[in-house]
Amino acid sequence: TRQFKRSKFGVFVDRDGVLNKEIGPITKLEDFHLIPGVGQSIKKLNKNFIPSFMVSNQAAVANGLIDIKTLKSINCKLDNYLTKYSAYLDDILICPNSKTKNFSTKEYSFLWKDRKPSPGMIKELGYRHNIDIKRSYFIGDSDIDILCGKKIKMKTILVKSPKIKKYKFNVKPTFKVNNLTEAVNLIFKNEKIYTS
């Protein structure tokens, strides 16, 4: 992981529905399928020195549907996929808690206690990496993601996914796109970053 000396904006992404296909709770490694274009999009951020982070609720852990070993294997599969594109995420945090059950997060550095829409995971990563949160973007596919970003005055980008049908919080994203590729291109346009 990189510690940035000067505070700068970052890009935070949800996992399911943004990086991988949304099929409901993922409990098996073979059900984790990356969305086309994800590797290239993360690499574009890397090449332009824009830090990128993943923040994800995974209540299936506390609910006993997936164990930590499998969750770590999914993290490795994501990492290996990105490596094929010479891409990487600067850091990740996952909340394993459900609405009613908690799972101990002390033993693993990638687990965090605060479940979205609490912005705790984003705040922690911002602190770790010296990120200017108010200048940053949160890319998600649910109302929970958008509410999470709005709570700390981030720019929010809603990606089209099946979860939009369950949108119940009255929060509007800053932008709407079809996928991560469009989201990253939009960020570059909005920040006036021009690449050859």
SS class:
alpha/beta
How many helices? The count is 5
What is the average of the pLDDT values? 93
Work out the number of β strands.
6
Distance between the termini: 27 Å
Strand order of the largest sheet: 3-2-1-4-5-6
Low-confidence runs of at least 5 consecutive residues: none
**What's the story with the biggest beta sheet?**
6 strands, parallel
Q: What is the percent of helical residues?
A: 25-40%
- Succession of helices and strands: EHEHEHEHEEH
What is the molecular shape?
globular
Question: Which key terms come to mind for this protein?
Answer:
alpha/beta, single chain, 196 residues
Explain the overall architecture:
With 196 residues, the protein is of the alpha/beta class. Helices cover 29% and strands 13% of the residues. The chain is built from five helices and six strands, in the order E-H-E-H-E-H-E-H-E-E-H. The chain has helices spanning 38-47, 68-84, 120-129, 143-151, 180-190, and strands at 11-13, 52-57, 91-95, 137-140, 155-159, 175-177. It has a six-stranded parallel sheet with strand order 3-2-1-4-5-6, sandwiched between helices. The longest helix is centred in the middle third of the chain and has 17 residues, at 68-84. The mean pLDDT is 93.
Walk me through the topology.
Elements: E1 11-13, H1 38-47, E2 52-57, H2 68-84, E3 91-95, H3 120-129, E4 137-140, H4 143-151, E5 155-159, E6 175-177, H5 180-190
Parallel strand pairs: 1-2, 1-4, 2-3, 4-5, 5-6
Helix pairs in contact: 1-2, 1-5
